[in-house]
Write the structure tokens for this entry.
Amino acid sequence: MSFETFSLHADLRRALAALGFTTPTPIQRDAIPPGCAGRDVLACAMTGSGKTAAFLLPILQRLLGAPRGATRALVLAPTRELAAQIEEHRRALARFTRVGGAAVYGGVAMGPQEAALRRGVDILVATPGRLLDHLQRPYARLDAVEVLVLDEADRMLDMGFLPDIRRILRALPATRRQTLLFSATLPPAITALARELLRDPVTIDVERAAAPAVGISHAAYPVGSELKLPLLAALLRGREVRSALVFTRTKHRANRLAEGLGRHGVAADRIHGNRSQAQRTQALAAFKAGTCQVLVATDIAARGIDVTGLSHVVNFDVPHSPEDYIHRVGRTARAGAVGDAITLVAPDEEADLRVIERAVGTRMPRVTLPGFDYAARPAQRLEVPLAERIAAIRARRATERARAAERARSRQGRVSVTR
């Protein structure tokens, strides 16, 4: 099957050809025809399966003959990076058309976003929080929306966006609209939301058990927690790793790991919710350009990271759920490519890893790195325990208060002498 099968507009076929897209992925093959026919769609699609084009192409096909000057399609995404990625795809697919669009997300100035909303861009891609900020102003109107897309719906609900989504729905017209809901997993909350939003939907792979892409090679490296950093540095130096996306469970660990890799001579940066949008954009740009070999990320911030040819994903911390593992490793082996997923497993994380193995149906080989000293004692700890950090902060503040009191007594003594 080729894209010619879908009877898409010539301008869209021209864009697909320019991008080198000839054969649709399975999700594109199944979702584009009902999407173009105006049907609601509920699709369970793994990361890297091509779902962005699966919903953008039907929208573009629909809007090619629509009047301009009003927002007719709204795409909601959980993170800034994913919203920016979707808008980048829209520009590429719409390059030979007059269909316009804009991305609205936090961490950047609202002015350009306000201008886009005032002129009524055809396709609006947004994170829920920032869109609600704009909807408090009279210039933001969604009363012409004909198509609604919820992308990574499971992650949006994990992030607590359901109340925001309901508020946005109230700003949409009450008339019949087309709704496309894409989710990598279908927990009960997603099923309930689908029943509420969708009318007689075409369902795609909703019975499929969540699983990583077939092109991923999995391996687990047992190691003590205190030796994870030196082992990772040794792996990065000793293997042919073009680029590695490394996941940690907290923002603090992401900072410490990026700094620790730098001390080991590995070019690394980090991306998480406490970094400004400018810092996140700069780190991602350097990673995509290849000037930064390693990008350390938390689960939430990594949504939307789409790097062509990403060779390795590393779980520095074992994820707490199989769904998180699937989302993490899905950053590699995208669109039919191949990639490696490495998990560093401390003794107290073995139970979590076994749960993941049972869920994905894969027994990961346990691997050791030849020549690495597993009995060594690291010079520095990666992460100072929270209790110790709090104690250190309190001690520092007590010292500062004592010094301030001493300075106050000294000033009082000088005043008394003067008098």
Remarks:
- The chain has 15 helices and 13 strands.
- The first helix runs from residue 10 to 19.
- The CA atoms of residues 218 and 243 lie 16 Å apart.
